[in-house]
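User: Teach me something about this protein's shape.
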Amino acid sequence: MNFHTRKWVKPEDLNAHGTLFGGSLLRWIDEEAAIYAIVQLENPRCVTKYISEINFMSSAKQGDIIELGMKATHFGKSSLTITCEVRKKLTHETILKIDKIVFVSLDENGKPAPHGKTQIEYVSDRLADRNESEE
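Assistant: First, the predicted structure itself:
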């Protein structure tokens, strides 16, 4: 699992108990997962279709730095399934896990469209392939 995004828990992210508000965390996860899907499928028109059970395992407090991890687990014809883990950066204590977040690749008309992807690709590999073909 790759942990790319880090967030600093600030006062505006807290609930009435002084811990990280779940809604703020879910907004961050949905945004990060969308970016991950867009990059993997090379299509800016990807939408969230499904989020499985959300397992809150611990919490974060003001001042904590958390990191969001994403990994593609299944490529469908027009979909991509991602797993997610959120943890504290300094201790690696898990805050949350989501087994399945499903995104669908859309065409210009907003209809599901085949993406042709079958495995995880990294932007650095794509850039290297493009640079080699230009030489």
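Now, about its shape. The helical segments are 22-41, 123-134. The chain has one domain: 2-134. If you'd like, I can walk through any region in more detail.
User: That's plenty for now, thanks!
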